[in-house]
Amino acid sequence: MPHPETTPAHNLEIPRRFVLIRDQDVTGFSGTGVVAVGVAWSDGPAVMRWCVNDLPRTIVVADRLTDIETIHGHDGMGHIRYLDNTERRQP
After folding, report:
1. pTM, full prediction
2. Minimal CA–CA distance to 32: which of 84, 73, 82?
3. pLDDT tier for residue 4 given thresholds of 50, 70 and 90
């Protein structure tokens, strides 16, 4: 029998993976193409890590993925692309 504090595997949600793609680098700092990778949960929160070569690799934690896209998408110069097909993944 599972431990009472343990979530059964059938209720465990695997976050959806994404990349932030910059079509144009308006700051001249992070470049173009895939500049960050992350995960987003269906109930809102998202975590993103910058992956640009030779730059400090910082991590962004946001309440919503749309916040990340709004702040780091530079007014449409970048966009989020999901790497997983479904909104909710289970193990």
Report:
1. 0.76
2. 73
3. low
10: tokens are 């059938």
CA-to-CA dists, residue 31 to 53, 55, 59, 61, 67, angstroms:
9, 11, 17, 21, 20
**Which structure tokens are listed for 86?**
């479904």
DSSP code string of the chain: ---TTSPPGGGPPBPEEEEEEESS-SSSSS-SEEEEEEEE-TTS-EEEEE--TTS---EEEES-HHHHHHHHTTTTTEEEEESSSSSSB--
Residue 60: is it exposed, middle or buried by C-beta count within 10 angstroms (0-12/13-18/19+)? middle
Tokens of 78: 């970048």
Whole-angstrom distance, CA of residue 66 vs CA of residue 57? 21
Which among 68, 76, 91, 67 is positioned nearest to 19, based on CA atoms?
68
Q: Tally Cβ neighbours within 10 Å of residue 52.
A: 17
